[in-house]
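Fold this sequence, please.
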Amino acid sequence: PISTGFEDAALKPMSLEAFKASGILQVLTPDQTIEMLQRVRAKAPVEHFMVMLPPGIAPAKFMPYAEVFAKEVMPAFD
């Protein structure tokens, strides 16, 4: 079985503060993202990483975030 890291991956209605505290979603700076991915790579030979469009977000609204990832995070792993 594949572990998602959550005992119960089904989302239940919750307040914004409870959602933030849940750890379901992390919002990181580019430097924090690089550090997190370096920690992951130190534990496993990760060769690929996928960024997904969050459900309910218009692609045009997500593009600036994808561009930051491409320009500021990806070069750290060339």
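The radius of gyration is 15 Å. The helical segments are 16-22, 30-43, 59-73.
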